[in-house]
Amino acid sequence: MYNLLLVDDEWFAIEGLKSGVDWQGLKFGAIYEAHNAEQAKLILQQTAIDVMVCDIEMPGGNGISLMEWVKEQQLTLETIFLTCHADFKYAQRAVHLGSFDYLLKPVDYRELQDTVHNALEKVAAAHDAKQRSEAYEKVYSKWEMSKNVLFERFWQDLFWQRLLPTPGNIERALTENLMPLSPEARVLPILIGIEHWGKPLNTREEEMMEFALRNAASEMLLGGLPGQVLQDGSGVQFALFFDDPSSGNRKPQYDEIKRSCTSYIDACAAYLYCHLSCYIGDWVPLSDVSRLYNALIQMEHHNVTRSQSVLFFKEQPLEARETRLPALFQWSELLEHGKREELLLLADDVFADLRKDTNVTSETLRAFYHALLQTIYYVLHRRGISVVTVFPGGGLLDEASATRSLHALQERTQSMIETVTMHMSLLDTESTVVDKVKRYINDHLFDDLSREELAAFAHINSAYLSRLFKKEAGVSLTDFIVEERMKKAKDMLLYSEESVSNIAKAFHYTNFSHFSKLFRKYYGMNPQEYRRQFTEE
C-alpha cells in the first residue's frame, strides 16, 4: 500500500480531493493532510510519502518552495501540482524541479485519478529498482563470503613463480591447498581482458560487476566442465580448463571453446555493460602455467586494435610466441624499481635454460632481444623518460652485434639491465604515466572524460591503464575523476555566482539529485547547505 499527502491551505479543497478520487482503489493505505508548507515538511520528515498532491499558491511558503525543499532533502516521491492560474513560469519551474504533472483548478477528478495512477507506476518502478539494488548488495556480501582462499593461493603462487614448479613442489602444493588435481593434470588458461564498461562505475560497483563476469564465465565458458575462474593479484580475470587423466572427464576442443567465448563476449556486452576479449592459451602442464600466464598478459597488453575478439595464443606469428617465452613481463617492475641483483639472477637463469635448448636459433635470439627492448621501452614510457636519455648514441638499435651469439646476447642483456636500473634508482621521484593522466584529468574536468580517451592520451591499452591507475593511485579512475570534480565544484560554490544546477551541468551531471548525493558523500552536506554555511562565515 502507498502513502498520499494532500497539501492545500483551503480545507474544503482537501475534502473535495479526498472524496472525489477513489484513493483506496489506487492502493493508498494512508492519506495525510497539510494546510501549509511547514505542516507538509513535518509529515514528510516523519513518514515515507509516495505521492504528494500540492497546491502551488499558499500563504507562508508556496508549493514551488516546498518542492525545492523536497529536492534538497533528497526525498523520493512524485509530486502533482494544482493551481488556479495557467502561469507558464510556474509550470516551467515545476517541470525543472521534476514534478510529475501540473493540473489546473477546478481539477477534473477523473483526470487527477489517471495522473495519480501514472505517478504510481513510476513509484512502483522506483521500488523495483531499489529492490534490485538491495539484491545486488546481497550478491556482493555472498561474494565476500565465498572466496576460495586456498585455491586462489595455489594459482597465485604458480602464476607469480612463488612456487618453484618442480614435480615435488607442485604435488606438495596441490595437497596443501586441497586442489582437486593430480600433478599430471594439464591446464588451458583463458585471459578475460576487460576493455571498457558501458556506463560509469565506482570502485565497489566495478568489483561487483567483475564478480558477475566471473560467475558468467563459470556458467558460459566452463559450462560444468572441470576448471576454475579467478582473479589474479593484479586484477586480471582468468578462466582455467582442467584436463586431468585421473578424472576421466571430457576435454573440450578448441572450436568448442571459441564458440563459448564468442557467446560470453556477446552476453557480457548485452547484459553486464562490459566490452571484453578472450585470449585463449594452450594446453600445458602445471609446470608451464606461469610462462603461459605471462605470455597471455603480454598478448593482451599489446592488443590495441582488436576489440571484443577471441584470440588464440597458438595462432600468433612464431616470433611473437618466442618473444614471450621468458617471463619478461615480470622484469618490468624490477627494472622500474632498480632491482639490479634480482634481474641479473633472473637473466642468468634464462640464458642457462636457452643453452640447454637444442632448438634455439638466430630467430630465437632476435625474438628475445625484441622482447627485452619492448620491456625497457614500456618501463621508460611509464616513467615518462626518453629512451635517448638513457641510451644516447642509438646503441639499442645495434641488433646484429647483440644477437650474433648467445654469449653476446647475454652480455648485452646484462649491460642494459645495469644501465636501466642505475637510471631508475636516480629517478624515483620522476613523473609516471599515472601522474600524467592525473594532470590531464585535472586539465579537462569539464569534459566528458572516458577511459578510452585517457588510454589514448597515455598510449596504452585501456584495461591496462585502469589496473595501473588503481595500483599506483590507490583509487579507480572513475572515483578519482569524481573526487576532483567535487573539489572543483566546492570551489565554484564558494567563489562564483553560478547556480548549483549550472555547476552540476558543467560537470555533465544531468541528474541534479545524483550530483547532490555525490557532493554530500565528500563534504557531509548538499551543495546548497555548503554554499550557505561557508559564504555566511
Pick out its properties.
six-stranded mixed sheet; 537 residues; 11 strands; five-stranded parallel sheet; 57% helix; alpha/beta; Rossmann fold; 4 domains; Alpha-Beta Plaits
Give me a quick take on this structure.
The chain has helices at 11-20, 37-46, 63-72, 88-96, 109-145, 149-159, 167-176, 203-222, 254-271, 289-302, 318-323, 331-336, 340-356, 362-382, 387-390, 399-402, 406-425, 433-443, 451-458, 462-473, 477-495, 500-506, 512-523, 527-536, and strands at residues 2-7, 28-34, 51-55, 78-83, 101-104, 186-197, 227-231, 237-243, 274-280, 284-285, 310-312.
What does this structure look like?
This protein has 4 domains: 2-138, 3-Layer(aba) Sandwich (Rossmann fold); 151-316, 2-Layer Sandwich (Alpha-Beta Plaits); 320-430, no CATH class; 438-536, Arc Repressor Mutant, subunit A (Orthogonal Bundle). It contains 24 helices and 11 strands. It has helices at 11-20, 37-46, 63-72, 88-96, 109-145, 149-159, 167-176, 203-222, 254-271, 289-302, 318-323, 331-336, 340-356, 362-382, 387-390, 399-402, 406-425, 433-443, 451-458, 462-473, 477-495, 500-506, 512-523, 527-536; strands at residues 2-7, 28-34, 51-55, 78-83, 101-104, 186-197, 227-231, 237-243, 274-280, 284-285, 310-312. Strands 6, 7, 8, 9, 10 and 11 form a 6-stranded mixed beta sheet that branches. It is elongated, with a radius of gyration of 31 Å. It starts with a strand and ends with a helix.
